[in-house]
């Protein structure tokens, strides 16, 4: 039975490492910040969680498992917040990028439909 657990742990660690590697390649290869943000947030976090799951399986019965669980929980809690903040900053900095101005047009269209409201200035 120990061999089955070892194979399962090794598989999880290898899949996690593969996902983390694809995230690193995406960060290097994608052209702009918004595209890189996707590669940095999603596959990297899932890859790290898979590596942690593999380590927990391998270290079953050890006291250090709780530290790995805490690392996984904090990563899952902070990664979406960081990605959201980076995405907002990148959107503000790249307003002239092709396709992003459509979202800005929706904001202006909404303000034209409601003449009683003033058009908001740029948010900082």
TrEMBL record:
Name of the protein in its database record: Multicomponent Na+:H+ antiporter subunit G
Keyword line: Membrane, Transmembrane, Transmembrane helix
Family: Belongs to the CPA3 antiporters (TC 2.A.63) subunit G family.
Keyword Membrane: yes
GO molecular function, one term: sodium:proton antiporter activity
Pfam family, any one: PhaG_MnhG_YufB
Species the sequence originates in: Rhodococcus tukisamuensis
Membrane-traversing stretches: 6-28, 65-87
């Amino acid at each position: 039975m120990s061999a089955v657990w070892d194979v399962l742990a090794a598989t999880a660690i290898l899949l996690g490492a593969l996902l983390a590697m694809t995230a690193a390649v995406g960060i290097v290869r994608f052209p702009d910040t918004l595209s890189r943000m996707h590669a940095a947030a999603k596959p990297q976090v899932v890859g790290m969680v898979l590596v942690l799951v593999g380590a927990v399986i391998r270290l079953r019965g050890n006291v250090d498992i709780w530290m790995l669980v805490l690392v996984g929980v904090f990563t899952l809690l902070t990664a979406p917040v960081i990605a959201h903040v980076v995405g907002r900053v990148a959107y503000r900095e790249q307003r002239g990028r092709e396709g992003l101005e459509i979202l800005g047009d929706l904001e202006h269209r909404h303000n034209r439909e409601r003449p009683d409201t003033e058009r908001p200035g740029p948010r900082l």
